[in-house]
Amino acid sequence: MKLEINSAEDMQKLGASLAKAAEPHDLLLLTGDLGAGKTTMTQGLGRALGIRRPVKSPTFTIVREYREAKMPLFHMDFYRLEHDDLSSIDLNGYLAEPGLVVIEWPQLIMKELPDEYLQLTIKRVDDSWNSTKRVVEFNPSGKRNEKWVNDTITAFNN
Prior knowledge:
By secondary structure, this protein is an alpha/beta fold. The protein has one domain (2-157): Rossmann fold, CATH 3.40.50.300. The protein has helices spanning 8-21, 38-49, 91-96, 143-157; strands at residues 2-5, 27-32, 63-66, 73-77, 100-104, 117-124, 134-141.
């Protein structure tokens, strides 16, 4: 399933739609080039969960925790993870918590992840750096995540 996104506001709306359909222990993987809109989407997701402080990219901190939400949000970015070394991050601990785990650049640690997740791939429609047009491809793994996609698309279109 693919969805066309035409603005940063639409990307945040998609994030909010994902949040409305999310359940504790869901795992969302975000792939795409730098500047594709992964953090923009997560900002919409965070706002919909009730996070009042700014949702920022965890590029340099690796993990940002937002426990004050309706459901905890654990936003991770493995772009700068050195040598695929997860020893400083209790990934299994985060996955065991009744929250939502969002991982940017998951391709660096795929072998460490559970078999069931929702992966979104975000691609620019054109090569223009300042263009906000994107295509988001949904790749669910597992029945729960197929339902998450369907519920998200329904929420986004309403």
